[in-house]
UniProtKB/TrEMBL annotation:
Organism, as annotated: Sander lucioperca
Pfam families: Peptidase_M17, Peptidase_M17_N
InterPro entries: Leucine_aapep/pepB (IPR011356), Macro_dom-like (IPR043472), Peptidase_M17_C (IPR000819), Peptidase_M17_leu_NH2_pept (IPR023042), Peptidase_M17_N (IPR008283)
Name of the featured protein: Cytosol aminopeptidase
Top-level EC class as recorded in UniProt: hydrolase
Taxonomic lineage: Eukaryota, Metazoa, Chordata, Craniata, Vertebrata
Reaction equations catalysed: an S-substituted L-cysteinylglycine + H2O = an S-substituted L-cysteine + glycine; Release of N-terminal proline from a peptide; S-benzyl-L-cysteinylglycine + H2O = S-benzyl-L-cysteine + glycine; L-cysteinylglycine + H2O = L-cysteine + glycine
């Protein structure tokens, strides 16, 4: 008898509902139901409001409470706290608090229902359907492809028809989830070739707008000596992945150029990393993952903008063929580089990609890389560090990050740092700063600047935001896929501004 009751409960809980409630401003413990929650409450003759009053203290932001059996269509109803109704853009936090609260709350409700093995969840739009859709899709993602026991797969839809904004939110989140999938996968599954093939598959649906080049021998022909110096220690062949998304009706529109560091595994090379946490270096291609995922997302959204994506992909491994500390290599633009630390390899592969990227006369160049541990020390996981020679470009990136909640923070590009990388005993440049650890993120950016002549360039160091423990409540523990949504929002802003 007991077993039969359990099976009945399990069956009727296959469908759930997430509803939001706000805290009333200036009223301790007061709650304000969203439009969808109020409509649902009305069908129950006020039963939901009554249960909320008697079930405990008022729901705080991101907290949830579940009710069973109160509606025949939704046996499991999760009610989530959305914070103050007056929340909005916060200057001190540099994000839209209301949007972040919605993402956090909806994510919490969806996960709670997923843990109950609910198969389908309808989600309250909470007054911002895009943020609600993002919270649901980001919160439910988990990389368990290689496990025999997997999390319950949950389908979601908005409880009310919010039209286009819902689909946009889903596409934004799916873009970040693609980057998370690539970054989380083991390095023996995502080699340079496998990475390129995965992106090609994802863009196959948009072939009329996207062209893809996967190049091997071409790298040598282009005299990309810095890139090749990193790749030669590995048995895996390097790939230079080039994506062209032609979304603008004006075929002559100057493209946005996105460049991503694509080290699919970084052992440090001869300058071998310590073994603890080296497994996380499977995500050292996070720059390439976020850049490529943002182009996949732009294509899915049919953004009216032209984008070129470049991803130099390789492994950084120690072997008899690997670059040795003290070796000198030549980049595509003819500058020589003394490689005193083979673990400072990301700037080498980016140097050649940046030189090549200028040939497209781009409107702006944005490169993205898990470049330095120093960036993690400086900002942690709070924001991506941005080094840029352009106030206009900084403003565009910052504006986009306020909307997405995936923040950026401007860092200095002083000549003070340039002098530290141009003071080299054997070559034009040294791949590490004169004082090694001091200002490491800044000297890395100064090094990259030596390969940039464009007036609008930004370097995004994403080492600090590469993974998530519990800092971003709507992302599970693991690789974060940040800042994919900010890159997409930035590109959408450029498309809107023309």
């Amino acid at each position: 008898m007991g077993r039969m009751v359990f099976l009945i409960v399990f069956y009727v809980c296959l469908q759930g509902l997430v509803l939001g409630v706000f805290e009333k401003d200036g009223e301790e413990g007061g709650l304000h139901l969203t439009e969808a929650a109020a409509g649902f409450d009305q069908t129950l003759s006020g039963k939901l409001s009554e249960l909320l009053k008697i079930s405990g203290p008022a729901l705080k932001t991101g907290k949830s409470r579940i009710f069973y059996g109160i509606h025949k269509d939704f046996p499991c109803v999760a009610v989530v706290g959305l914070g103050k109704t007056s929340a909005g853009v916060c200057g001190s936090e540099n994000w839209d608090t209301s949007k972040e609260n919605i993402r956090q709350a909806v994510s919490a409700g969806c996960r709670l229902l997923q843990d109950l093995e609910v198969k389908h969840v309808e989600v309250d739009g909470c007054g911002d359907a895009q943020s609600a859709a993002e919270g649901a899709a980001l919160g439910l993602f988990q990389y368990d492809q290689l496990k025999s026991k997997k999390k319950t797969k949950v389908t979601t839809q908005l409880h009310r028809s919010w039209g286009k904004l819902n689909s946009i939110g889903v596409v934004y989140a799916e873009g970040q989830n693609l980057a998370r999938l690539l970054m989380e996968a083991p390095a023996n599954h995502i080699t340079p070739t496998a990475f390129a093939n995965t992106i090609e598959e994802k863009l196959a649906l948009h072939a009329e707008r996207v062209t893809i080049n996967k190049r091997f021998a071409w790298i040598e022909e282009q005299q990309m000596g810095a890139f090749l110096s990193v790749s030669k220690g590995s048995e895996e062949p390097p790939v230079f992945l080039e994506l062209h998304y032609n979304g603008s009706p004006d075929s002559k529109q100057a493209p946005l150029l996105l460049v991503g560091k694509g080290i699919t595994f970084d052992s440090g090379g001869i300058s071998l990393k310590p073994s603890p946490s080296m497994d996380a270096m499977r995500a050292d291609m996070g720059g390439a993952a976020t850049v490529c995922a943002s182009i996949v997302t732009a294509a899915a959204l049919k953004l009216p903008v032209n984008i070129i994506g470049l991803a130099p992909l390789c492994e950084n491994m120690p072997s008899g063929k690997a670059t040795k500390p003290g070796d000198v290599v030549m980049a595509r633009n003819g500058k020589t580089i003394q490689v005193d630390n083979t673990d400072a390899e990301g700037r080498l592969v980016l140097a050649d990609a940046l030189c090549y990227g200028h040939s497209f006369n781009p409107r702006a160049i944005v490169n993205v890389a898990t470049l330095t541990g120093a960036m993690d020390v400086a900002l942690g996981s709070a924001a991506t560090g941005v080094f840029t020679n352009s106030d206009w470009l900084w403003e565009q990136l910052h504006k986009a990050s306020v909307v997405t909640g995936d923040r950026v923070w401007r860092m200095p590009l002083f000549q003070h740092y340039t002098r530290q990388v141009t003071d080299s005993q054997l070559a034009d440049l040294n791949n590490i700063g004169k004082y090694s650890r001091s200002g490491g993120a800044c000297t890395a950016a100064a090094f990259l600047r030596e390969f940039v002549t464009a007036p609008h360039w930004a370097h995004l160091d994403i080492a600090g935001v590469m993974s998530n423990k519990d800092e971003v409540p709507y992302l599970r523990k693991g690789m974060s896929g940040r800042p994919t949504r900010t890159l997409v929002e930035f590109a959408a802003g450029l498309a809107h501004d023309g």
